[in-house]
Amino acid sequence: MSASSLLGDIADVGRDRSRGGYSRHGFDSAELSLREWFVAEAADRGLDVTCDRNGNLWAWWGPPGPDAIITGSHLDSVPGGGAFDGPLGVVSALAAVDAMRAKGIKPSKPFAIVVFAEEEGGRFGVACLGSRLMSGAIDPATALNLRDPDGISFAEAVSAAGLDPARMGRDDEALANIGCFIELHVEQGRGLIDLDAPVGVASSILAHGRWRFSFTGEGNHAGATPIGDRRDPMLPASQLVLAARAAASSVDGARATIGRIQPIPGGTNVIASTVDVWLDARAATDEVTRNVVAEIKAAGLSAAEAEGCELTVTEESYGDTVIFDPVLRDRLAAQLGGVPALPTGAGHDAGILAAHVPTAMLFVRNPTGISHAPAEHAEPDDCEAGVAALATVLEHHLST
Ligand code: GLV
Ligand code: MN
Ligand code: MN
Ligand code: MN
């Protein structure tokens, strides 16, 4: 079956009528129905599906075992995200199995399609939660205490989905079985458009992290409180937005984004008592990223002080620069007739796994260059080129 028709099958799941695009978050009803859909698709292909201790799904073609070749991605999205970020890697893996079967290929090594849980952190705030838990990159107690915007903890959400929170955490057995992980993903920038290529391989991922800035002032009445009597945390919060742009603009290639602000209590006629501001900052190296964040933090502290507010800053997640295994990257590029290698600013489960196992990524051209938004796209022909590329590299790995 083609990747586009598989995407068509799930096109109605998790549509976000108010934001546009899709909102499919870890263990919410939309993501749970996508997981069910995946289990059924895998079963139709005779694959054996297991769910690991951390909520990641594995569909095995043949028996599980060591030195396994793993491909896959995630099914969750950012709030109001596109149709391709995540699902394209999953449907392409299913379509690659179909293509290999049609050619009479049988895996000579263990092979599985993986669906990682809560990759975007759109519900619990920390990206790549399933792969971080599996690889020990996050302490299970920290993960289980994360809360979604409705106050539901990750522990409660996974229990409701039938998982045992007490068993979550580093899974050495699962990690030890992975001989190599290859994640196919829609490109999230304009690299392949500019190179005029439908498919490429990833070279690196920017260092990146998320920080919560909590400004606390004094909640009060919007009409009855003279301007001079206010300690309004919205003031330093607003200045933080400008400081983030200024700090990132002064460093080549750095990015700083504030895409989420939450005033508490959040009333039009209420001076907020607290404003939480989430910063996403990225740059080529750990040092540069940390310097950019330090500059933004300094600006936040002085803006808070000027308004008589307090500021606390919490690092919610962080990942250093990822350089993908150059041998594997070059081997894949050569197997695909010399496709280009390109860096990305987006985070992926592949970036988490790269610290543990040989890992590579294939990118499929995105003609809009837009991602994490409804305009994200991949043409059906390019999706098929992606499936063919994935099947080609899997065939090489499964037959050697
Ligand atoms: C996830 O896709 C990220 O890069 O934030
Ligand atoms: Mn994403
Ligand atoms: Mn993704
Ligand atoms: Mn991602």
From TrEMBL:
Any Pfam family matching the protein: Peptidase_M20
Keyword annotations of the record: Hydrolase, Metal-binding, Zinc
Cofactor note: Binds 2 Zn(2+) ions per subunit.
Residues binding allantoate, per UniProt: R210, N269, R282
Co-factor(s): Zn(2+)
GO molecular function, one term: metal ion binding
UniProt protein name: N-carbamoyl-L-amino-acid hydrolase
Native source species: Allokutzneria albata (Kibdelosporangium albatum)
